[in-house]
Design brief:
This protein has 2 domains: about 1-15 and about 205-275, Phosphorylase Kinase, domain 1 (2-Layer Sandwich), CATH 3.30.200; about 25-190, Muramoyl-pentapeptide Carboxypeptidase, domain 2, CATH 3.30.1380. About 25% of the residues lie in helices and about 25% in strands. The chain has helices spanning about 40-45, 70-85, 100-110, 115-120, 155-165, 180, 195-205, 210-215; strands at about 1-5, 35, 65-70, 90-95, 135-140, 170-175, 185-190, 225-230, 230-240, 250, 255-260, 265-275. The relative contact order is 0.18. Residues about 45-65 have low confidence and may be disordered.
Length: about 280
């Protein structure tokens, strides 16, 4: 068995972190590595011209570029290549700094008013775009709205919705769930949560808020089981003490693949993967 310890800072790291007005990002959270999505990304299957993965500290050198956390960008690339989407779908907005979110929020308040802004623009510090795990996509048209791009449930956009779940993405703000997500329906906004969580969320017809609460029902002795193809998964929640001096401890079997993500609330989610064939 391998022993893992988790502290307060681990709660705000990982693909499953919940970010909304009730769950802001910590001020001291550090951004992981970013991949910049150039115009050639969707057309030719490239990250940047030389495939380089660039640290978040270099973001100012590529002002105007759309970026994502590197693993999320890699999975997005795979979806686009599988669809052979060419230039039919374009990235509109990915990672944003706190300062960028503040500017977008202030500009929208001035140009669109408080009601519109409250529906479609997250309060600075509470935006998924600040995680690097979210991407706004648009069907390639002559005019594209930066705040509310058009991404219809038809054609190549529908194909993306259907396929992207297998690569770890969910449609984050579905219609009819506004009271839960605290954001209006945004059919253009996709969030990377990783596999198999994306598939489970889709099958349960859950929002990320609901899924995070659901996982708290499962512990190491009673994990959530899920099987797809050659892999079986065990998923469970480990509460983490809020006292910076205390740690949570989890025992993980040897020879088992393990992923860990905080929930940005009160603990971490551990996902074990076993080969069953």
């Amino acid at each position: 068995m391998k022993t893992f310890q988790f502290g307060e800072s681990d709660v705000s790291r990982g693909n499953l972190i919940l970010v909304n007005p009730s769950h802001p990002l910590p001020d001291k959270r550090k951004m992981d590595r970013l991949t910049f999505l150039e115009s050639s990304f969707f057309c030719n299957g490239l990250f940047v011209s030389d495939g380089e993965k660039i640290c978040a500290t270099a973001e100012s050198d590529r002002a105007g570029s759309v970026a994502m956390e590197s693993q999320a960008a890699e999975m997005l690339l795979k979806v686009m290549m599988q669809l052979n989407a060419g230039d039919k779908i374009l990235p509109v907005s990915g990672y944003r700094t706190l300062q960028e979110q503040q500017t977008i929020y202030a500009d929208s308040l001035r140009e669109n008013g408080a009601e519109y802004t409250g529906k479609y623009v997250a309060v600075p510090g509470c935006s998924e775009h600040q995680t690097g795990l979210a991407i706004d996509l648009a069907e390639n048209r002559e005019e594209i709205d930066f705040i509310c791009p058009d991404f219809p449930d038809a054609g190549i956009c529908r194909q993306f919705r259907q396929l992207s779940t297998a690569y770890g993405f969910i449609e984050r703000y579905p219609a009819g769930r506004e009271q839960i997500t605290q954001i209006a329906c945004e059919p253009w906004h996709f969030r990377y949560v990783g596999y198999p969580h994306s598939e489970i969320i889709k099958e349960m017809n859950d929002t990320l808020e609901e899924y995070i609460q659901y996982l708290k029902c499962f512990c190491p002795d009673h994990p959530l089981g899920y099987q797809c193809g050659r892999y079986a998964y065990e998923i469970f929640h480990v509460p983490v003490p809020q006292d910076p001096g205390q740690k949570a401890v989890a025992e993980i079997p040897d020879q088992v693949s393990c992923q860990v993500s905080g929930n940005n609330e009160d603990g971490v989610v551990i996902t074990l993967q076993r080969n069953v064939l």
